[in-house]
Amino acid sequence: MTLLGIPIDALSMDEAVTSIHRLLTQHRQHQIVTPNSEMLVEASKNSAFRSVLQRSSLNFADGAGLLLMARFTGQKLAHRVTGTDTLQLLCKNLGPEYPVFLLGAAPGIAERAAQELRARNPRLKIAGTFAGSPDDSDSADIVARINAADPALLFVAFGAPRQEMWIAKHLSSFTSVRVAMGIGGAFDFIAGVQKRAPSLLRSMGLEWLWRVIREPKRIGRIWNAVVVFPLLVLRHGKEAPRSL
After folding, report:
1. CATH code assigned at 105
2. Residues 114-167: pLDDT tens digits?
3. Is residue 190 one of the residues assigned to a domain?
């Protein structure tokens, strides 16, 4: 299926994790994206970002707004597949044959997230962690660090759309990475430095309300997600379901 011309894979959480496991067994590289309403608004005016979303191997629906607008456009999208939940469920079941590298967030956060993930799955192999940045001046050092660590799976927490653009630009430079995925603030949640919305609010699609109450400075981003995105879909019109 598609929304605003961007392909979205209509998968459950379990199906998403199974799909990533399958990609890890392949001898080619894959980028996974978890678009939300705000990201699709950005893609509507950022052609480079739009191209990344259209070329990625998988796009998981990370946002209740996508489910609502899918119904409006006559398409079936039953499940949210958030980056944070995908990362945690995947790492809970990974063995040491698929080492993981955590890149991004503030200094020290990726290390704390790695400790928590290892506590949940002692078999998980964390190949390395690094805060880094999406700046071009840091890219050569980051690529060298990751290649030296030899991971199969790379999670990048630079925030959208920077993390997706960075992965698309540098994925081919990695010698061992088979799957790379942008995961926004997931490290902060796992490390415990940020609190996620209660599960009830998440299930009701009101995570945006929780975030704007806790972080009023996000009001512009929330406006794009809950107002601008539906208006863009209304203007774009109904889209025919598409098999990817």
Report:
1. 3.40.50.2300
2. 999 999 999 999 999 999 999 999 999 999 999 999 999 999 999 999 999 999
3. no
The two structure tokens encoding residue 33: 């994206």
How would you classify residue 222: left for phi > 0, otherwise alpha for psi between -120 and 50, otherwise beta? alpha
- Which helix (DSSP H) or strand (DSSP E) does residue 100 occupy? strand 100-104
Q: Verify cis geometry, omega within 30 degrees of 0, for the bond prior to 161.
A: yes
d(CA 120, CA 40): 33
* Residue with tokens 């119904």, as numbered in its chain: 71
Measured distance between the N- and C-terminal CA atoms of the chain, rounded to whole angstroms: 7
Burial of 144 (0-12, 13-18, 19+ CB in 10 A): exposed
Question: Cβ(110)–Cβ(131) under 8 Å?
Answer: yes
Identity at 74, one-letter amino acid code: G
Burial of 143 (0-12, 13-18, 19+ CB in 10 A): middle
